[in-house]
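Exercise 3.2. Students should predict the tertiary structure of the chain below and write it as structure tokens, then compare their answer with the key that follows.

Predict this chain's 3D structure.
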Amino acid sequence: YGGKDNDALLGGNGSDFLYAKEGNDILTGVDGTAANPGRGEIDTLIGAEGNDTFLLGNATKFYYSDGVDTATGAGDYALIVGFNPIEDIIQLQGASSTYLLGDSPTGLPAGTAIFKKTAGSDELIAIVQSVSFLGVDSKSLRFV
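Answer key:
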């Protein structure tokens, strides 16, 4: 749990529950140094007041990949709750052209799904609840 200040909330291996509370917080549900950050994890990242940043990738890796191009990645993703597209940012690895937005897969929580395009079945990276993005070029999405 975050506090009233600007906090960096870090998960690790395994599924995590991170709650930002007040302040401009950074939420990372995975161990970014792992070979496959987020593989096999379903992390719940909850934003609150302030300008929160949800890290779903860094300059060299996208998180929550199951490593199988023929699977949808429904077993590893970030569930983002309390996202405010006016204040908050979702950081993704790569370029906007390598992602697409859509409905969350059947059987998973409702929301806008962020998929990484792959050679096979597109990879689910996150489900953002209660938000509709205009597209992958939204100012709420930052690509590194």
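Discussion points: The two ends are 26 Å apart (CA to CA). Residues 8-134 form one domain.
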